[in-house]
Amino acid sequence: MRAVIIENNEVSFKETEVPVIKENQMLVEVISAGINGADLLQKKGGYPAPKPWPQHIPGLELSGKVKYIGSAVEDFQVGDFIMSIVGGGAQAELAVAEPEYSIKLPAGLNPIKAGGFCETFFTAFDALIIRGKLNPGDEVLIVGAQGGVGTAGIQIAHAYGCRVTALTKNFDFKTRLTEIGANQVITDIGENKYDVILDLISGKGLSDRISNLKTEGRYVVIGVGAGFKAELNLLKLMEKRAVLTGATLRSRTKFEKQLVAEQIKRSLLKFIEEGKIDVIVHKTYSFTNAYQAYSDFENGGKLGKLILVNEKYSDAGRLNDN
Ligand SMILES: NC(=O)c1ccc[n+]([C@@H]2O[C@H](COP(=O)([O-])OP(=O)(O)OC[C@H]3O[C@@H](n4cnc5c(N)ncnc54)[C@H](OP(=O)(O)O)[C@@H]3O)[C@@H](O)[C@H]2O)c1
Q1: Which of 10, 98, 105, 113 has the fewest Cβ atoms surrounding its Cβ within 10 A?
Q2: Domain segments of the chain: what residues?
Q3: CA 170, CA 187: separation in Å to the nearest integer?
Q4: Ligand 1: distance of its center to the CA of 77 in Å?
Q5: Which atom of ligand 1 is nearest to the CA of 247?
Q6: Residue 198, SS3?
Q7: Whose C-alpha lies nearest to ligand 1, atom 47?
Q8: Over the stretch 11-56, which tens digit does the pLDDT of each residue have?
Q9: Which protein residue's CA is at the shortest distance from atom 22 of ligand 1?
């Protein structure tokens, strides 16, 4: 099979060995796989995949068709179309997926877009609903709102009946961000107060943004692209009885990820089926063009996800013929 391979801090698409599944795993023919910030970090030599996931094939999320199943797999069959979060190895023609956090493709989700669902929506759901304890009617601010997790977060908060403000550095995206659920799009934080702030960039600005929490507000950090250090006035937290929390997804135990997957199946899939939630895709690339896709991700300026597609499935309409 061929896969995106990280070598000497670069990516290329080349021949490699077919992965071997254990009895509780599935081998999936990948339709598509999203690119995430973690892949970029891995390419630069950081954020290694947890073992025993592939160390040189990036990719944390995929959609695909189940090709083989291990003897202990119960809920999936060969031929099922699924989407899944994986510890690594998604950006390949064949990848290993685990049933505990695989989801049969819901009606209404394009199979190519589905390859950009799991890491992104699991992260946004965990941050907003589980860590941020979002309630219908809450005022929510999403900082760094135009990326993959941000556009997922906007839609989730909107579907839960919250009032959503998107903080973006690119005002050109205002119309699209409004269409997917943002009540307000801003480029400067201003004085408004929020019940939940989801910070996808962090950095020094975090210190000031804490002031924008309401009493009993929740501040959730999941991205540190603007820096991982900030000075904090603890009195602000005390005065507001605020919660400052953060999370990573990749390093969690199987059981912890399974809990998120179960909640997503119960609470989020219905929004996809109702057309309230979709994966926002900026651009798709064939696997052979992975180098360009990574380069575009690095250069920024996108709205939503960049997704790598297996050429065999480049026309999603072919899905039913395979
Ligand atoms: N904790 C976890 O488990 C977890 C899981 C997934 C992702 N993450 C992290 O969460 C962050 C977001 O993920 P993602 O997939 O959404 O990445 P992404 O698609 O690159 O989105 C990040 C967005 O933030 C924007 N941005 C950067 N600096 C900004 C600023 N100063 N003001 C406003 N917007 C700014 C970027 O704009 P440009 O494109 O124009 O630069 C980009 O649209 C990343 O750092 C990622 O590594 C964490």
Answers
A1: 10
A2: 2-117+279-321, 120-246
A3: 7
A4: 35
A5: 1
A6: strand
A7: 37
A8: 999 999 999 999 999 999 999 999 999 999 999 998 888 889 999 9
A9: 147
Q: Is the CB of 260 under 6 A from ligand 1?
A: no
Q: How many residues in total does the chain contain? A: 322
Q: What CATH number has the domain spanning 2-117+279-321?
A: 3.90.180.10
Pick the CATH number of 120-246 from 3.20.20.105, 3.40.50.2000, 3.40.50.2300, 3.40.50.720: 3.40.50.720
Question: 28 and 84 in contact (C-beta within 8 Å)?
Answer: yes
Decide: 19 in ligand 1 pocket, CB within 6 A: no
Q: Which atom of ligand 1 is nearest to the CA of 151?
A: 16
Name the closest-CA residue to atom 17, ligand 1.
147
| Kind and range of the H or E run holding 258 | helix 254-267
The pTM (predicted TM-score) of the whole model is: 0.95
pLDDT tens per residue across span 134-165: 999 999 999 999 999 999 999 999 999 999 99
CB 307 within 8 A of CB 35: yes
Q: Please give the single-letter amino acid code of residue 315.
A: D
301 lines ligand 1 (CB under 6 A): yes
